[in-house]
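Hello Y.,

Per our agreement to keep a running log of every chain we model this quarter, I'm adding this entry. I've kept the format consistent with earlier entries: sequence first, then predicted structure.
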Amino acid sequence: MIKLAVFALLVSLAVGAGTGQARPGASSPTASKVITPCIATGASWRRGTRRGNKYVITRRNVTCAFAKTWVTRLSGRRATRPAQSIPGPRGWICIVTAPYAGRAAIGACGRGSGTGFAWGPKFS
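Predicted structure for the entry above:
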């Protein structure tokens, strides 16, 4: 049940990633809750001929600095299967959605009320 909730958060983060950041002064009451991406440096990853150590982070109701700190740590955690739980921030639930070469290259962390972040390799 908890993994399903984190998965739902991940999907909502991924779907919202294309919305970008709200325009300054936007009149929408939810402008402050629009998902905004940021980039972190983490564990090295390799997928086919592509490789790197940069991650795109999609977040909701957390700062970029907080998410970057945790993605740097979490991307290097050992992971062998999708939906594997990994230890993250205290009081948060984190799962790997796709391991690359035994590491948590794609994952998400959530903490109720739509608060959370997701990460994946930056391919470009």
